[in-house]
Amino acid sequence: MQQNTDAVCHHIVQGEREAETPIRKIDYRDGDIKHQAGMIAKAVMKNFYFQSFGEYRTILEQFNLTTEEVKGDSNGKAYNGILYSVTDNKGNQQGKPFKSSLFGKEVGYNALQQHFEFSKLAVEKKNIRELLRPKIADAMHKARNIDDFRKLLKTNKIDVFFRINDEKRIYGATFIDFQNRAVLNGSRLGKEFSANVFNEIFNNTRQVVEAETKSTEITNDVNIDLGLSSVLGLFDFSNTGVDYEDENAAVQQANALRKKNKIKRRGMRM
Predict the structure, then answer these.
(1) What ranges do the domains of the chain cover?
(2) In angstroms, how far is CA 150 from the centroid of its own chain?
(3) pLDDT, tens only, 46-71
(4) DSSP-based three-state secondary structure for 235
(5) Which of 29, 129, 141, 157 counts the most CB atoms within 10 A of its CB?
(6) Element (H, E) at 86
(7) 198 closest CA partner among 145, 138, 134
(8) CB of 112 within 8 A of CB of 100?
(9) How many CA atoms, within 13 angstroms, populate the side-chain half-sphere of residue 131?
(10) Cα 50 vs. chain centroid, distance in angstroms?
């Protein structure tokens, strides 16, 4: 996938000392690939809202890292796990995948499930969908083609990534709102932003082929800029990152709300 930014800094806590460490796209020339992959996974978890595994994968892929969920059973006991794999600049997997346990519990399966719940509440509280819809709709109305659409979005610090099948049909669209640090599938914004709609708007085969090329050819610059001073959006990670001290409370709130709604629905059926 294409990411047009250049450098990002993230504050990493080391014991009682906080050091500012640059987070870059993975580069084999830098060595210690496992360490690079683990740093990226932790930074993305700390600094972005996402509500699904696919949304998480989309933002990871901007850093030459991808992930997959694995399920199975061991000695009759079911388990869920996460694997992380390094990719090249075209998204091709390189080397063997890493188990999430090598990076720590904070980027494992259970942590992801909690983060999905936390992100859902945060997106609702901050009205991120409501902020995004008119900006995306305006770009859809003005754009002559996919390239125009992407350029118009970037003026609002938003990027879009289309998933395209072998028949050159758009079957998925994911938006990254860099200003609010939120990753949202188009369908989550509403049916008017679903993949089918974009396929109808940009159904010219040449446009779709060009979009696919731009989504898979990542720039050779190994630094990704997530700063607000750039045209694509800048982040001060030290001030407005995800507050994980409140995450457990947020998850408990979500669970309590689901339980309350379940009891309410049961009462209506009686």
Answers:
(1) 8-265
(2) 17
(3) 999 999 999 999 999 999 999 999 98
(4) coil
(5) 157
(6) strand 77-87
(7) 145
(8) no
(9) 18
(10) 6
